[in-house]
Amino acid sequence: MIHKFAQNNTHIVLDVNSGAVHLVDKLIYDLLDYVTEPPTDAICPESILKALSDQYKPEALQEAYAELHTLYSMGHLFSPDDYGQFSSLMAVSPIKALCLHVAHDCNMRCEYCFAGKGDYSGQRMIMPPHVAKSAIDYLVAHSGNRHNLEVDFFGGEPLMNFEVVKETIAYARSLEQVHDKSFRFTITTNGLLLTDDKIDFINREMYNVVLSIDGRADTNDRVRRLASGQGSCHDRILPGFKKLVAARGEGQYYVRGTFTRYNLDFMEDVLHLYRQGFDQISVEPVVADPAMPYALTEADIPTISAEYERLAEELLRREREGEWFNFFHFMMDLEQGPCAIKRLRGCGCGNEYVAVTPDGEVYPCHQFVGHPQWRMGDVATGEIDLKIKADFAAATVYGKPQCRDCWAKFYCSGGCNANSYIYNGDIAQPHKMSCELEKKRLECALYIKAAGAMEEEVTL
Fold first, then answer.
1. What is the pLDDT of residue 36?
2. Is the dihedral of CA 440, 441, 444, 450 positive or negative?
3. Residue 460's pLDDT is what?
4. Residue 347 has what pLDDT?
5. Closest listed residue to residue 72, CA positions, set 29, 18, 6
6. pLDDT in tens, 95-127
7. Bridge-partner residues for 126, per DSSP?
8. Which ranges of 105-213 does DSSP label H, i.e. alpha helix?
9. For labeling, which of 195, 285, 349, 406 is most exposed (least CB within 10 Å)?
């Protein structure tokens, strides 16, 4: 399986199974339209020579076809699928990560929030300390021999329950030596309640921080409003975010935004965040009911794709001029790449990763909360639904019909299981809109790598 595409006169061919990426000239790019099976010898078929005779000379086509044969012989083109054999071996794993919903409440009322208005379409709740500690015990009990464990403090808005956040971390630290575990903590916040003491604690204790802001003031405040109905969040949260990042040093963080139909020029929001001093940026497409006025639809895909291309060019331009910032969705490691498990089943939700509500119920991830059929257990009793766990363990790209023959399958690894369920009613039926945008982001990421490689070669 191969995938080829052109962007800004750069012709790129991805060999899906090996992961090899090739920069090719226009001749080879066109030739591949006619190579429908692996070139097992170096002689170009007469049918191909005839089909392209009005565009290219026979000797040029023959030379190009021989190059394809060489790449095939090296295992870098039309390579066999070595991953399918592992799909049936994907097993239930110990839990390594916990999304701890310390607050089913929020001081904001964002229109597009997957959690309703921060309460997960239910009763507003704050997690008591004993539930948080039971959740840590639950993670330790179900972690098996895993040494490194992760806890993400989530909401709603977790800073509304910050004393429990601090108490939970202290409790987890007290268990590390006893159980031979090491905890890493993350917090996701809208920043409205950030204070100097909270910033100091977060920067001292949190391995990663996710700062929620959508970009420009008019973009952010249109859909992200205070509980009072006011839309003046941007100017209130930005100073605290800047202070936190400035004091964080080399610590991990990223600002995380959402773009909607209201800001299809989202590159301007990315650049706005960069100009505010942030160099770790993620601005992601909203996933919503197409009937909502802010929702993205398939009709928006060409515009969004063009904007991703524009952003890719802007990133390259700035890098040439000595500037740099990281756009999360263009990150791609072509040298090492993900392990086989990550290629087949990228998301660990429901298997290696679970979410815990303020009253101690366990769900596959934060987006399944509120869907009672996906309740997996309770931290008070220690129970866990092994059937649900096994279903998610088996949710690989080979068990999803749309993924099996998709060129992007080993990079998106089947996409978001929650989106698949919420919008298609089945974790094995990927959300089409998300798939199309993911494929475009992957093409842009490959293009950035290719353009960088070409510029480095010219420099050398």
1. 85
2. negative
3. 34
4. 80
5. 18
6. 999 999 999 999 999 999 888 776 787 889 999
7. 103
8. 129-141, 162-179, 196-205
9. 195
| Residues 136 and 168 sit within 8 Å (Cβ to Cβ) | yes
Burial category of 122 from C-beta neighbours within 10 Å (exposed 0-12, middle 13-18, buried 19 and up) = middle
Look up residue 32 and give its two tokens. 């591949």
Distance (Å, whole) CA 426 – CA 429? 5
pLDDT at 315: 95
* pTM, to two decimals: 0.91
**Do the beta carbons of residue 235 and residue 279 sit within 8 Å?**
no
Question: Environment class of residue 358 by beta-carbon count within 10 Å: exposed (0-12), middle (13-18) or buried (19+)?
Answer: buried
- Any idea which residue has 């709740």 for tokens? 125
How far is 210 from 228, CA to CA, in rounded Å? 24
Where helices occur in 25-161 by DSSP H, the ranges are 26-31, 46-51, 58-73, 129-141
> pLDDT of 247-260, one tens digit each?
999 899 999 999 99
Report residues of the chain scoring pLDDT below 50: 458-460
CB half-sphere exposure, 126, CA atoms < 13 A:
13
Tokens 């007469």 — which residue?
A: 46
- Pair 426, 418: CB distance under 8 Å: no
Two tokens, residue 242: 């800047």
List the structure tokens of 298. Answer: 């398939």
Q: Give the three-state DSSP class for 19.
A: coil
Q: At what angle do helices 196-205 and 162-179 cross, to 10 degrees?
A: 20
State the pairing for strand pair 10-15/2-7.
Answer: antiparallel
Q: Report d(CA 213, CA 205) in Å as an integer.
A: 22
